[in-house]
Write a structure and sequence with these properties.
Alpha-Beta Plaits; single chain; five-stranded antiparallel sheet
Amino acid sequence: MKRYCLALDLKNDPVLIAEYEAHHRAVWPEILQSIKSSGIRHMEIYRVESRLFMIIEAGPEFSFEKKQAADAQNAKVQEWEELMWKYQQALPTAKPGEKWIPAQLIFQI
């Protein structure tokens, strides 16, 4: 299995952060299905203040390109992404349209 770590910021507003976390305690079934069907076996999101870290463990069939293409055809995923963008903001180094930024592994034992 391959592991990916990504980062994204939330808007620094306690009310919006609380709403974002509430949405993630009740993720829509269609979103969970789209994650699992893409080859993602395990996903976690952590928060420190307004910074998010996502850890993905995925099988060999997973690719960000395939997931992005499938998501573009899924109306519920698009609805979820639009809703989440109310709470999220790109990292300062993000390219236009980029949300989650891959983190670079710098240490491992």
